[in-house]
Structures are given as C-alpha cells and as structure tokens.
From TrEMBL:
This is PIG-L family deacetylase. Pfam families: PIG-L. It comes from Pedococcus aerophilus. The lineage of its organism: Bacteria, Bacillati, Actinomycetota, Actinomycetes, Micrococcales. Keywords: Zinc.
Amino acid sequence: MTHTLVAFHAHPDDEALLTSGTMARAAAEGHRVVVVVATDGDLGLASDEFAGDGRLGDRRLAELHESARALGVARVEWLGYADSGMGPELLPDPDERVRFIRADVDEAAARLAEVLREEDADVLLTYDRNGGYGHRDHVRVHEVGARAAELAGTRRVLQATVPRDTMTRALDLAAKVYRFPPEFDREGFTRAFSARDEITHRINVRRYAAAKRASMRAHASQASAEAGADRTLAAFLRIPRPLYDLVFGREWFVDPARPKGSRIATDVFEDLP
C-alpha cells in the first residue's frame, strides 16, 4: 500500500540537509512525496553571483525544484512568506509579504493544512522543538507544522533532527581536517537538535546517498561565498563519496506521540494502515 509524505521546511536547501534521503527512499518505494517551504530563503548567505541583483529568493526556489527532481518529489509548494534571517535584528517585511517569524501561527498553519488535506497526507515531516540549530524560522516550522497537522487531522508528525552527541562528535572529527570560520559556535550544538533517548525513528538512506548528494548540489547558491570564505554545504560536497555515504547514510526523527521506551522504528510509514 502506498502513502503520502509531506516534508515541511523553512527554506530551500533545508530539505537537502535533513530529510532528502527519507524523501528519496519514499519516492523510490512508490509513495507520493510533497515538499513545502515556508519562505523563499531571500536572506540566505550567497555570493554576488547569486544575490547581487536582488533575486536570490527566485533562484533558491528554482534550486528547490531542481532538488525535488533529483529526489523524485511529485509536488513543490511555497507558502509565500519571506525569510526572517539569522541576524540579531529582524528586518522590516518586504512589499506584500510577511517574514515568517511574524506570521500568525494559525494563519500559516491553515495554509499548510490546505496542502495536507489536498494530499490526504499520511505523514508530515517538520523539525524538533529546538528548530535544529535554533534558527527562528525553523522553530516556527515546528510550531506551524504541529498546528497544521491538528487542523488537517494528519495521522503522524515526525520531527526531523540529529542526535546531538552524534552531531558534536562529527564536528570534532571534521575540525581535524576543516577550519571552521571564527563565528562558528561549536558549543551551541551541545544544546541543539535532540538527545539520543528522544529519537524514535532511525531511517537507513545509504542506498539513496547519490540522490541526497544531488539534492545538496542543486542548491548552488548556498554553496557559494565570497573569496576566502567557505560554506558548510560546499564542505559537505567535497567529502569523498564512500565517506559521504557513511556520514549521510542515516536520518533521524522524533515522534512525540510514540510511547517512551518503544523500539526504534526504521520506516516513517511503519504501522500505518
């Protein structure tokens, strides 16, 4: 029996990093996969080649469609919000759009719930309560996704995450061969994502590592930087393929409705009728 999976993300490229393997696996197994982004990512960091003319948001949405093709995604939707950015100061809203963090949760959830109803979604992917590493738009995705599932009656909500001890161990290994920029806050990751005992789903996506890598590569603007700088996505794409498959061969989720102490599930559709 086939199901429908909807992955809800804050910005184009977030799907590549956290859920693309799960999306590619679901599509390859015959399920319908839909990706929804809240914002167009117009405040993302990028070189002048991509952002110099003020059309970065358009380019990032185009990159999202390219990523979707690599993953076998059947439908791509943008909820119409503007990127809230990462800086300490929240910028004014652009013309005729609202920055996602300023959006009313019920209003934004209603937009997402409309997609969930149209698709008769079985599973919704969102973020954990920390919003992963804490970006304000990611935290809002967690809030909006939970409310939208209530409105639409979606049966299962899985929060994309990473076991934080795995994340910090990987960062320490990477630091031996890669120099992180001065502003990189390694300690911040000790409070980010989820504790290992909160993980309910561990999905093996190693067979779909090539699709995941293609999804990352599609977001060329987010691998770009000015001379002398480096970007995390660009560093990931430089990892040799066998090591890449190992590092990115699993994806993790938290199901807040799953009883504590349950065995770790290995399929996002497990036990669904």
